[in-house]
Amino acid sequence: MLYHFGKYLLFMSTLVVRGESPRILINRTIDEAILIGINSIMIVAIVSTFIGAVTCVQVSYNLTSALIPRSTIGFMVREMTILELAPTITSIVLAGKVGSSIAGGLGTMQITEQVDALEVMGINSASYLVLPKILASLLVFPMLVTLAMFLSIAGGYVAGTLTGALTAQEYITGIRDAFIPYNIVFALIKSVVFAFLISSLSSFRGYNTAGGALEVGAASTTAVTNSVIAVLIADYVCAELLL
Amino acid sequence: MIEIHNIHKTFGDKKVLDGVSGVFETGKTNLLLGASGTGKSVLLKCIVGLVKPDIGSVTFDGTYFTNNKLDIRQEIRRKIGMLFQSSALFDSMNVQENVEFPLKMLTPDMSKSERMDRVNFCLKRVGLEGSNKKMPSELSGGMKKRVGIARAIAPNCTYLFCDEPNSGLDPLTALKIDELIKEITEEYNITTIIVTHDMNSVIEIGDKIMFLYEGKKLWEGTRDEIMDTDIRELNEFIFANRLMRDAKKVEEEEREEHQENRESK
Ligand SMILES: Nc1ncnc2c1ncn2[C@@H]1O[C@H](COP(=O)(O)OP(=O)(O)OP(=O)(O)O)[C@@H](O)[C@H]1O
Ligand SMILES: [Mg+2]
Q1: Is the shortest distance between the CB of B49 and ligand 1 below 6 Å?
Q2: Is this prediction's ipTM beyond 0.90?
Q3: Which of B71, B84, B105 lies closest to A123 in CB terms?
Q4: Does the CB of B86 have a partner CB in chain A at under 8 Å?
Q5: Of A10, A135, B24, B182, which shows the fewest CB atoms inside 10 Å?
């Protein structure tokens, strides 16, 4: 465990020594960001809409007391999705989607000697391949999480009004009630932390693949499980530190 | 000139290289000959630093390479063109982008049109003009090899390493590739190391040959000397190769005879 952590730190330090020119780095980062964004936007949209809808239905099921106004449902949907569900669930979904594709891609490049080919050209393969992926994730994850917040609140609206749990007016009153802007900042900070963990851990696993196709599959799986665990631990740490 | 000195490499408890030393001369095609699994690819990777030797050193034109500072190693590496045994094409790029890639990275001041000229020139030399837009997954093994060679020679390298450039190619293409490598070597006066187990290559282009056997250098010499060595392992190797060639020749003769018979009828 400690050994792997040390290796991970060493790996991260190789990313920043002797990189390529800024122009190449920026171009590569944009390419990667487009790839990550386009590939994940659909799944993030679907997941977050349903999360919002489910949260709304379940909260309304639990809030049966006549003393509590129905608008509280909207309030709770907003609080739960912005603080926890949108950033964390989205990141866990992305750990599966982005993490496995990063690890699988790098693993394949490693076992087919493409990484060696880069090295022989005098290119720092780790920084050329990995750094843009990490930067792109840092850039794209907050955007996806923002989208997820919107869509889950919208999902809650649709589910709440369709099932007749509360009126549109009540829902809107609820989501505007006692709004703390810092919560959005908190969620975005979390998404950046998760982005770093997922992209760097998956890159680490993928880049250090040796062997054949079997090992690439294994690296992909390990990357996803490691990322998910890291996200959950970081989620707890962020909540303790920042709230 | 590349000099290697006393290279040892062990994987786990398997000794792969056992004290190999030698000199690879500039402007000549230096061949590393040996049976499968004798450590030819590992030796090549030790020379370019992809595998770190346990003991031993490599110098490029007098500059110490192994264990030297990263800057100096990368400086030397930028002068290296290498063809991998598995071709190692970048599978997210098409043929043209693959060949263009080292130019983009190593000579950033080259203009786009200059780069394209160079790419087309290199692809033409390996007989692949018109395949610019194909992806590596759409190429045959031999075509991948040739793209690999084009990518290796695209920047004007000073050192060229080819790991089995003609395995998996038909005899005619193999011969062409061999001749291409020799031509480039002499034209640009570069240092070339070719890993092979093909005696045809030895006879065609082997200026200097190093024979590896179970991680040791057993013999070294020119192609004229290779036929009269008294090293048993090398003779066996040559003999096995000759048997195969003779078999091919007999087959061809029979076919010709057959054809003549048919024609006379
Ligand atoms: N990364 C590695 N880890 C462990 N063993 C290795 C590694 N690379 C090579 N070997 C071992 O080193 C030995 C020599 O391998 P090498 O690839 O150099 O053979 P070769 O001479 O190139 O053979 P071929 O002609 O088949 O390509 C083999 O027995 C192989 O198992
Ligand atoms: Mg080999």
Answers
A1: no
A2: no
A3: B105
A4: yes
A5: A10
